[in-house]
Design brief:
Elements: H1 5-22, H2 32-47, E1 54-55, E2 58-59, H3 66-77, H4 82-108, H5 111-122, H6 125-130, H7 137-156, H8 161-179, H9 182-194, H10 207-231, H11 233-249, H12 269-274, H13 278-284, H14 288-307, H15 320-333, H16 342-371, H17 378-400, H18 404-429, E3 452-455, H19 462-468, E4 472-475, H20 480-486, E5 489-493, H21 497-500, H22 503-506, E6 509-518, E7 534-542
Parallel strand pairs: 3-4, 3-5
Antiparallel strand pairs: 1-2, 5-7, 6-7
Helix pairs in contact: 1-4, 1-5, 2-3, 2-19, 4-5, 4-7, 5-15, 5-18, 7-8, 7-9, 8-10, 9-14, 10-11, 13-14, 14-15, 16-17, 16-18, 17-18
């Protein structure tokens, strides 16, 4: 029985998504964003308060709640399962990938260009990391990509436009409920700018349903905010003031900070950089229309992100989608082989040989940072090295033979191998071998049932709350009456309790040292190693 090519594409896309987002998903350590999300979810479940989230006992209204509701539901079904929490992010990564595929296929009318786009997309390291992180970012962009797909089809087709506009409004609302207007600004607005290059859509008879789409977006996206304005107006005002201040004062970078955006494409960086030569490609590329649309969308996204005062490299995540289309257009152009223009030919060869050399350098690096560090066995290293040398040979051959699709398949195979067999080793390589997590207090009977506090004059890392799996509230330990009123309790402090508590307090209490805990995710020699994660845990109780 003959299998249609489009079914093969969907099968390959499914397998690649499953490996990219779900293989060894719990291998990498948690980060601060995951800790915040999961701590908030745990408190939703324990307190039963799903509408007014708290984080370590304080109102947490800065982030829209949809991803945290999902995390809360997972926490209720699978308590304390990082793998389960990251599964939800993986599902969102799959959703984003599928709708990117559908959008590119619809606009370009090419299955092969759409497939190449998503392979490039799934081999961007930032997407791989965010699809394995139980945070907010990937939710809003995944929902927005679905909205863009349905909106595009509704604009340019007369059939089923009502249902598609309803779906577009639904997904836009979910995007807003996931991270506010972020994806509207970073993904949708650049896309609408790009639509100027397309023929004008026929809107006759659609305006009413277009308004319905906007109403659906507002109802789904804003109902929670309306509820908060009614129930907690003062707190909402404080959060709005805080967040607006953060956008203009926190992590402020110059407008050109994102000039290195193409590096976010990883193995495709050189091609993305070369793709910016718009005057050249406009005359030479074999898919000029698709390239024009993609490069307009990509540049509009980067420019709009550059206009915002607050900048972080992870904010470039939405730009990976249009940039992947741009790179796919170049790769599709390279299929012309020997008939390519000289610049395209040399660009393809130089890029392929550079990446091949990088792959050849991986085995010695794996031996030095894997085998010598004791995080992988020599047998795993040998198998991985053989595979990498084989992939390097494959890349060189298909570079010299001008076979870009086979070259892309080699990059995909390399990523799949790393995600299946090496991701655990990567997590251990960059971990802290001397770590002794405060998570140990979860099973320590000496602190069972006691409330946890920290010195209110010292900032507390939310990661400690996540690891300890309990609230660690601030306490004025300099006030003996406050300390007395809270006895017995557990003190988490940078110094031992005898050095933190005033003598007037020490003389009236007994202390039981539980231990010193180091929750640094990086080794001591790393510049990110900090004393903020080194804490002493002590039981403070009435003197016998």
């Amino acid at each position: 029985m003959k299998i249609e090519k489009k079914n093969i594409y969907m099968l390959l896309l499914t397998v690649f998504c499953l490996i990219t987002f779900f293989a060894n998903r719990a291998s990498l350590p948690t980060d601060i964003m995951e800790s915040r999300n999961i701590v908030t979810a745990r408190e939703m479940v324990s307190a039963g308060n799903w509408l007014v989230p708290t984080m370590n006992g304080e109102l947490r209204l800065e982030k829209p709640p949809l991803p945290t509701w999902v995390a809360g539901g997972i926490e209720k079904l699978c308590p304390d399962s990082l793998a389960a929490q990251r599964t939800a992010a993986g599902v969102m990564g799959c959703l984003w990938t599928v709708y990117l595929f559908l959008l590119v296929r619809y606009v370009s009318k090419r299955d092969d260009l759409a497939m190449t786009t998503v392979v490039v997309f799934l081999t961007c390291y930032n997407l791989v990391l965010m699809g394995r992180s139980a945070t907010w970012d990937i939710y809003c962009h995944a929902f927005m990509m679905a909205a863009i797909y349905y909106l595009t089809r509704a604009l340019y087709e007369d059939n089923h436009y009502r249902q598609r506009l309803v779906l577009a409004g639904l997904f836009m609302g979910l995007s807003f409920l996931s991270k506010g207007p972020v994806s509207f600004y970073a993904l949708l607005l650049p896309y609408l700018i790009m639509l100027v290059a397309l023929p004008q859509p026929v809107m006759k008879g659609k305006w009413g349903w277009f308004v319905a789409m906007l109403v659906i977006t507002l109802v789904i996206g804003c109902w929670w905010y309306v509820y908060l304005l009614v129930a907690h107006p003062a707190e909402v005002e404080a959060v709005l003031h805080k967040e607006s201040g953060a956008w203009s004062n926190h992590n402020v970078r110059p407008w050109y900070y994102y000039w290195r955006f193409f590096l976010e494409m990883g193995a495709w960086s050189l091609l993305m950089l070369a793709a910016l030569a718009f005057p050249y490609w406009r005359k030479h590329i074999s898919v000029p229309r698709d390239y024009l649309l993609a490069i307009t969308w990509a540049i509009a996204s980067i420019v709009l992100l550059s206009l915002m005062p607050e900048k972080k490299t992870r904010y470039l995540l939405p730009s990976l989608a249009p940039c992947s289309i741009v790179v796919a257009c170049l790769l599709f152009h390279f299929k012309k082989g020997e008939s390519l223009d000289w610049f395209s030919k040399y660009l393809y060869i130089v890029n392929g040989l550079i990446i091949s050399v990088v792959v050849l350098l991986l085995p010695p690096l794996l031996y030095r940072y894997g085998v010598k560090a004791g995080v992988i066995s020599i047998h795993t290293d040998i198998v991985a090295s053989i595979f990498m040398v084989a992939i390097a040979g494959w890349l060189v051959w298909n570079t010299l033979q001008m076979h870009p699709m086979e070259y892309v398949a080699g990059i995909a195979a390399l990523f799949c191998f790393a995600e299946l067999f090496l991701l655990g080793a990567v997590g251990h390589t960059f971990g802290n071998p001397d770590a002794h997590s405060i998570a140990a207090v979860r099973t320590d009977k000496r602190v069972a049932g006691l409330p946890f506090y920290h010195n209110e004059s010292e900032a507390l890392r939310i990661e400690l709350v996540y690891e300890a799996d309990r609230k660690i509230l601030p306490l004025n330990i300099a006030d003996s009456s406050v300390v007395s009123n809270h006895l017995p309790f557990v003190l988490v402090s940078r110094k031992w309790a005898k050095d933190e508590l005033p003598k007037t307090v020490i003389n009236d209490v007994d202390t039981v040292a539980i231990g010193t805990f180091d929750d640094n995710k990086h080794p001591k020699k790393d510049r990110h190693y900090t004393a903020d994660f080194i804490n002493h845990v002590t039981v403070i109780k009435k003197k016998n």
